Structures are given as structure tokens and as C-alpha cells.
Amino acid sequence: MVSSDVALLAAWAAEERAQPEGWDFSSLDGRMSESSEPWDLAAVWRTALTSGTRVLDMGTGGGEFLARFADALPEHTVATEGWLPNLGVARSGLAPYDVGVVGADPDEPGGHLPFADGSFDLVLNRHESYDPAEVWRTLSPAAASSPSRSEETNSVKYEMHSVCRLTRRTSPTHSFGPA
Questions:
Q1: Residue-by-residue DSSP string for 78-140
Q2: How many domains does the chain have?
Q3: pLDDT at residue number 17
Q4: Quick check: is 21 in a domain?
Q5: Sheet holding 100-103, edge to edge
């Protein structure tokens, strides 16, 4: 093996050992790029939080993104995280905002959300995989048909219902979206 190969392998091994905490990838600054999305997710979340009273953030990572909205979070806000190394990071990062973090991995067999039916009126999800029927199960019937929600939010709910039907999952039992 050539010395440059040995050096390259050593550099890769060092990168592998130095895992980020939560979703803080600042160690990759200058070495990573990501494309911009055609929407402003922070603005979408901030708007949605104005009417949320019982909020779930799915797959919070280390809680860094949710913490940006600390001033807008309702008293009943909960987050899930499925990657064990992030669980402690998220719990300590969100504790100052009274946000509980529950271990839940939707990709695990039987990976249901550990909440009662109708527990939330707003479910936020930045990047976590999910079972549409599980998200619907945790949404309150009022959240799914609330006329106080914006047309855009009702459209998203309508799309979620369509996903439930297309994947042959149990669709919600309450009405929502345009008549």
C-alpha cells in the first residue's frame, strides 16, 4: 500500500470516529454543500405553530431545529428521535424549553408512534420516515377538519389522506379537506 493510501485511510477512519452530536454538522463546513429547497421550512413551521396547541416533532435529531422556535412552542410539545446517540442530545437540548423527547424509530418492526389516538393537533416532520396511518392516528379529529387551519394546511392533510389510501393503509375516520 502506498503512503498516500495509508494517509487517506487514516483520514477516513478519523472522520468515522468523529460523529456529530444531534444534527450539528458544523465540522463539515467548507467540505459539504446542500441544495436549497424551494420553500422556507422555518417560515412554514413558525406559521403552523401559531395555531398548534399539542405538537409532535418527529425525528428531532438533536433538537436543534425545533429549538429555533422556542418562543412559539405551545406548552404541550413532544419530540421523537429514533437514533440512540441523538436521544440524550435531544433531551438535554430541548429540556430548557420543557419539550419531552421520546425514543421512537418508525423504521423498526412494529415501529408505531408511542402516543394515544388523537394526541396532537400539529405534527411536524423535517426528515423522518413515517407511516401515514400512524400520523393520522395521532392527529386529533379536530386538527384534521379544523376550519381555522389555512387552505395550505388542509391541502397537506388531504394529501396525507390520499397517501393513506394509495398505500392501502388505514385511512382516517374523520373528514378533512375540501368537500
A1: EEEE-SHHHHHHHHHHHGGGT-EEEE--TTSTT---SS-TT-BSEEEESS----HHHHHHHB-
A2: 1
A3: 65
A4: no
A5: 100-103, 76-81, 54-58, 122-125
What letter represents residue 6's amino acid? V
| Distances in whole angstroms, Cα of residue 89 to Cα of each of 47, 86, 143, 171 | 26, 5, 30, 35
Backbone φ/ψ region at 22: left (φ over 0), alpha (ψ -120 to 50), beta: left
Whether 110 maps to a domain, the answer reads yes
Distance, CA of 56 to chain centre: 8
pLDDT tens for the chain, 179 residues long, are 678 888 888 887 877 766 667 766 677 778 777 777 787 888 989 998 998 999 999 999 999 999 999 999 999 999 999 999 999 999 999 999 999 999 998 878 777 899 999 999 999 998 888 888 888 889 888 775 443 334 444 444 444 444 444 443 443 333 233 33
Q: What is the CATH number of the domain that holds 127?
A: 3.40.50.150
- Cβ atoms within 10 A of the Cβ of 44, count? 14
